[in-house]
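Handout, section B. The chain below has 285 residues.
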Amino acid sequence: MSFISLLQSSPAVLIITAVLVGLMVGSFLNVVIHRLPRILERQWRTECAELTETAPPPAERYNLIVPRSACPKCGHRITALENIPIASYVVLGGKCRGCSAPISKRYPLVEALSGVLAGYIAWRYGWSAAMAGALLFAWAMIALAFIDFDTFYLPDSITLPLLWAGLLFNLGGTFTDIRSAVIGGAAGYLTLWTVYWTYKLATGKDGMGYGDFKLLGAIGAWLGWKMLPLVILVSSFLGAAAGIALIVFARRGRNVPIPFGPYLVIAGLIGLFWGESLTRQYLSL
């Protein structure tokens, strides 16, 4: 029996494999979260230099693959044994092997989140196109949430391919029919676009970024337009609750912005996994 056949016939093996793959993908997502904003910043600086005809910045090679990961404090190169998801963090005691500087708890958190979601998706959907699509959706959402949390930026290099991937998966009705997916993509974008311009015309201030429009459009393309009210309601509630908590407990000013992307991500995942049952329960009331 081939390994693929074993994955198809044994749910336990599929779930265990999905968790292990998810942990490894989570390790890579940490690289994406850290490096992608810096890669884009370098590209913008180069483009600005070309437009202004000034000397471009040094063309040091920097992408998601090179240079090798290293401690930001002492420059110690991370070896393969020091890069095993979660296990290396535990063995190293959460500290750099070279200088004993603390390693952010975010790294094992992202790895664990990626692995747990992968295992749940494998259990829920089994060996299917829906499993593959849900894994892609969940991993992209994890990267977007943490990037937006750090930088208040949702990269087009993730949101736009995610939108098109949602439409492609739904050509065969994987999560919704293609008509609902197309309407969902357009409606998701235009809903927040309308909110943005209404707020801007009323106050003269920017209430959110264009990346939020694209992210909700991508969620609509994956889940269909009928899921958008739930996603908007849940994300707005979570964002409001977080904002109030920051004001009350962290003494954060009312005018200090908070990223909306992470709450859209949470709401999108809730919509993917439990959206239909929640909507049915709500309508039954």
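Note. The longest helix spans residues 11-52. Compare this with the example in section A.
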